[in-house]
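quick one, 121 residues, struct below
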Amino acid sequence: MLVAFSVAPSGVGPDTPAGPAAADASVHDAVAAAVRVVRESGLPNRTDAMFTTVEGEWDEVMDVVRRATEAVGRYGSRVSLVLKADIRPGHAGELEGKVERLEAALERSAGAGTGNGLSPS
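---
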């Protein structure tokens, strides 16, 4: 399965910086704590500007999401978690495979002309 998730703290937690800078603080430290959990899991993963995607079996992926969420919880009194899953039993390597199939489709359609009105200027 693939799970794309985003986790962020809100409120004030024990690891939140104090003082005037706290009001302007980015969540990058909290997100870094979550991404560290994901990367240390050893599961295939990718992080972009909005989500981290993890690939594996249900129990192992959900355990990583839980631990990443707990890591972020140290930075606030609340945690927001957004999660999207693609559950496809019997398939592995989809973190890369889905993107490769998309790129191949784009190459095919570029050569054939799509007729969708979305041509470069």
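The CA atoms of residues 55 and 93 lie 8 Å apart.
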